[in-house]
Design a protein that fits this description.
The chain is α+β, with helices and mostly antiparallel strands. It is built from 19 helices and 22 strands. The strands form five sheets. It has a six-stranded antiparallel sheet with strand order 12-11-10-15-14-13, sandwiched between helices. Strands 2-1-5-4-3 form a five-stranded antiparallel sheet, with helices on both faces. It has a five-stranded mixed sheet with strand order 17-19-20-22-21, covered by helices on one side. The protein binds adenosine-5'-diphosphate. Adenosine-5'-diphosphate binds next to helix 16 and helix 18.
Length: about 850
């Protein structure tokens, strides 16, 4: 939008808004002023008319009252009962008519009602005899509720009678009662006066061409003549609700409304409470507000004038302002078109002059820049052309390449399609292979499962075999075997019965699941009776799927157990070895569980194992019994041989010497006697030793050897034995190698002394006189080790293990050179072992032997405790 237009619009809007606001405000103020004035004027008019109406009615009322008083005065002069009714009547009428004629021309008719409401006299004949007792005005006047009446009666029975068949007309009546001595004599009624009222109200002075005054009754019907309609009386209805009120002056409020003629009017209503009528004063709105309309028109015309002036001024101003700018604009367009030489210079000194001068300078600069740009653009164009040529060449090459690519792509696509086809074929083949493979895998799985089942069974059997092999005690084997079997089968009921020696009864050895009290019933089974008995007899396993189906064929107690424990299926397996039935095993399920085929086979295999195990234990029992007997036999013969030989030798020499000495024919000298007696003494010592060895051995065997242990050092024991040892090694070089300070040992001093004496005696016996015998003691790994080393004959390797056995002696002749029982080393071994130690030998034949035994060193705390509890014996 151009500056000129903008300026125009702004001025136009400003003038328009200001003018409109001024006009509206002015009009509103003028309206208010005019309205107030009209209101005052109409109120004044209404009040004055109302007042006039009131005066007219009052004068009518006064007239009738005078008449009534006259009638009363006249009646008072009459003699009571002197004159007849008719005379009285005539007199009254004459009085009435005279009164009316003389004072009130507006009265059209006059009536006289008697005390019963009957017209007894009237100015018109037609009223005579009319019964007006229903007229409520009459009853009110007769009762004395009111003294006079003035008002319209067209709606009353009297009014209807007066109007007759014709349309209802406004009838004004004035009435007053007359009495004698307080009693009602009659009522006088005037009819007429409507015209006077019409004249008063229809005076439109000061109300212009549209103004009007009229009277309406309480129902709003017009009572007086209209200025604009002929037949308005009792026909036109006006709503006075807005203006009517009960009290005078209450309705003086200007209302803008529509008149009965349908035009806009301003209205004031003035009520007349005594009659229930309302004086209505109206004036046409257009006439009332005519001055305001004129004022508004003038203001609007002025506004238009101002607007026009404003537009002209705006055009002038904007032209003066924009002319140099337009010039600048044209110059700029010239420059844009390329006319760099166009001059815009101006001598004006205002801002626009400065702007045009700056514009001139800018144009010069632009011209320079434009020249540079043109040069640059020319060079650019040359470059672009070159580039375009190069691009065209490249494009051609590219197109060629694209064509080649497309061909290659096509070839590729063909290859791809072929490949896809091959892949599809291959996939189908693979699917087939896959199916075959899957089948194979399934088979493998089945085989694997079977193998696994087999493995499980084998593992179970292995576990069972281990259980069985862990013991040689038959009861333990059977217990473990049954428990393991039930565990593998995951059931709780089962039993093992063994065949007795006679082979006709099975006796329960182990019963599981059923309480022992109940199990007594099946503790013995006769072979051939019941399922178990038949199994034992035939040696064939039997499977019963449902025990409840075979209850009748079972023993009573067995049936009872089955029912009580809800037993279901059972396996009965014979326990056989080498075809002989040794017993019977049973396993039973509860509830719904039934043994599977695999489980049944497993139980049969287990039965074989248990059978073999029973036989093995029987064999072992027999074997060990035989071995024990053999050992006993060997011991007995060893003892016999040893005892008989060893006892015989000393006994023979004792017997021989004693016989020699006691020969009666020979006298032995004292010396010889003494020598013989000493030999007898030595030999009996040997006998005594043999007997004591045998005694000690039997004590050991019987387990009654007593140990009296106490803490003591080995050197203390040896020093106690000093004399005894000296005696034993009298022919040898004896040496005791016992370092001082060795820890104590907790031992029976006597018994350990006996072991040492035994070993030293043996060393002396089995080595040449003069050779060395060493008694050595050392502490080795918490033990005291005592060794007796000789340089004697030694012991061959094959005998070394046996020399600690009872009655064992080497058979060589040299060995026999010392009397002995073969018990010494075995007794020593038992003593050492009783002390928690051990005994052993190292030897080389012909070089010597080293016998050693070890005793654990006493732990201090333990030692002191023991010391405390074992008193010195
Ligand atoms: P004995 O009463 O016969 O000596 P022992 O039990 O003491 O019974 O010895 C058993 C056998 O051990 C002896 O008969 C002997 O043959 C052999 N023996 C024991 N000590 C030695 C030793 N120091 N040197 C060689 N042989 C020995």
């Amino acid at each position: 939008m151009k500056i000129r237009q903008k300026t125009l619009i702004v001025i136009f809007v400003v003038v328009l808004v200001t003018g409109a606001v001024t006009t509206i405000v002015g009009r509103t103020i003028a309206m208010n002023i005019v309205e107030d004035e009209i209101s005052d004027h109409l109120v004044t008019t209404a009040q004055s008319r109302a007042q006039t109406v009131r005066l007219a009615l009052e004068s009518q009322q006064q007239g009738i009252e005078i008449l009534a008083r006259e009638a009363e005065a006249y009646m008072a002069t009459m003699q009571p009962g002197g004159l007849g009714f008719l005379v009285k009547d005539r007199l009254v009428v004459s009085v009435l008519l005279n009164g009316i004629a003389s004072s009130m021309e507006q009265v059209r008719d006059a009536l006289c009602l008697d005390q019963n409401g009957i017209v007894v006299a009237a100015t018109s004949e037609r009223f005579l005899g009319f019964d007006a007792s229903d007229w409520e005005v009459f009853s009110e006047l007769s009762k004395g509720n009111r003294n006079t009446f003035v008002g319209d009666i067209q709606d009353s029975p009297l009014g209807e009678f007066v109007n007759g068949e014709a349309a209802s007309e406004f009838l004004l009546a004035t009435a007053a009662p007359f009495r004698t001595a307080g009693d009602l004599e009659g009522v006088v009624v005037f009819l007429g006066g409507e015209k006077e009222l019409s004249e008063i109200t229809t005076d439109v002075t000061g109300l212009g061409k549209t103004g009007e005054v009229y009277l309406v009754n309480s129902d709003g019907f017009m009572l007086t003549e209209s200025r604009f309609r002929e037949d308005a009386i009792m026909q036109v209805k006006t709503d006075t609700a807005g203006g009517s009120g009960d009290s005078e002056g209450a309705g003086q409020e200007l209302i803008s409304t529509t008149s009965y003629m349908g035009s806009k009017v301003l209205r004031i209503c003035e009520p007349l409470p005594e009659t229930g009528w309302t004086v209505v004063v109206e004036m046409g709105s257009s006439e009332a507000f005519a001055p305001v309309s004129t004022l508004t028109r003038v203001m609007l015309w002025s506004l238009l004038g101002v607007l026009l002036l404003g537009v002209v001024a705006a055009i002038g101003i904007s032209k003066a302002l924009t002319r140099p700018i337009v010039r600048l604009h044209r110059g700029a367009e010239e420059v844009m078109r390329g006319n760099w030489d166009c001059s815009l210079s101006t001598s004006a000194k205002d801002e626009i002059g400065e702007l045009s001068r700056a514009f001139g300078k800018m144009t010069a600069n632009l011209k320079r820049s434009h020249e540079e740009l043109r040069h640059y653009s020319e060079s650019l164009e040359t470059k672009v052309e070159e580039r375009t040529r190069a691009l065209a060449t490249a494009n051609e090459e590219l197109n060629r390449e694209i064509i080649e690519r497309k061909q290659a792509e096509k070839a590729l696509q063909e290859a791809h399609d072929e490949l896809e086809m091959r892949v599809l074929e291959r996939t189908e083949q693979l699917a087939e292979t896959n199916a075959i493979l899957e089948e194979e895998i399934m088979e493998r799985k089945r085989a694997e499962e079977e193998a696994l089942q087999r493995n499980r069974e084998l593992a179970a059997l292995n576990a069972l075999a281990q259980t069985i092999n862990q013991s040689v005690d038959l009861d333990e084997i059977l217990r473990n075997a049954l428990d393991k079997t039930l565990e593998i089968l995951n059931v709780q009921d089962g039993s093992i019965h063994l065949m007795d020696k006679e082979g006709d009864t099975l006796s329960a050895r182990i019963v599981r699941g059923v309480p022992s009290g109940e199990a007594k019933g099946v503790s013995t089974i006769r072979v051939g009776e019941g399922i178990g008995g038949v199994v034992a007899q035939k040696g064939e396993p039997t499977f019963v799927e449902s025990l409840s189906d075979v209850l009748r064929s079972l023993h009573e107690d067995a049936a009872q157990i089955i029912l009580q424990h809800d037993l279901k299926s059972a396996m009965f397996v014979p326990l056989k070895a080498r075809g002989v039935v040794l017993g019977m095993m049973s396993a039973v399920t509860r509830g719904d569980r039934v043994f599977t085929t695999e489980e049944r086979e497993l139980v049969i295999t287990i039965g074989h194992q248990i059978g073999t195990a029973i036989q093995n234990t029987q064999l072992v029992e027999e074997a060990s019994r035989a071995e024990a007997l053999e050992e006993l036999d060997r011991l007995r013969s060893a003892l016999l041989a040893s005892v008989s030989h060893e006892l015989r030798t000393p006994l023979t020499s004792i017997k021989g010497l004693a016989s020699t000495l006691t020969q009666p024919d020979i006298e032995w000298d004292r010396e010889t006697q003494r020598e013989f007696l000493m030999i007898i003494d030595r030999e009996s010592n040997i006998l005594a030793r043999i007997v004591s060895d045998l005694m000690e051995m039997s004590q050991i065997e019987a387990g009654v050897m007593r140990m009296e242990k106490a803490p003591i050092t080995i050197s203390a024991i040896v020093s106690q034995l000093r004399d005894q040892l000296k005696h034993l090694v009298v022919k040898h070089q004896f040496e005791a190698d016992i370092p001082p300070g060795l820890p104590q040992i907790y031992v029976d001093e006597m018994r350990i002394g006996e072991v040492i004496t035994n070993l030293v005696a043996n060393a002396a016996a089995y080595s040449e006189p003069g050779t060395r015998i060493t008694l050595q003691a050392r502490e080795v790994d918490g033990d005291i080790v005592v060794s007796v080393i000789d340089e004697g004959i030694g012991i061959p390797a094959e005998h070394r293990g046996k020399i600690f056995d009872r009655f064992y002696r080497l058979e060589s002749g040299v060995a026999r050179r010392r009397g002995g029982t073969g018990l010494g080393l075995s007794i020593s071994k038992r003593i050492v072992e009783e002390h928690g130690g051990r005994i052993w030998v190292e030897s080389k034949v012909g070089r010597g032997s080293k016998f050693s035994f070890s005793i654990p060193v006493v732990k201090l705390a333990k030692a002191s405790q023991k010391v405390a509890s074992v008193p010195e014996a």
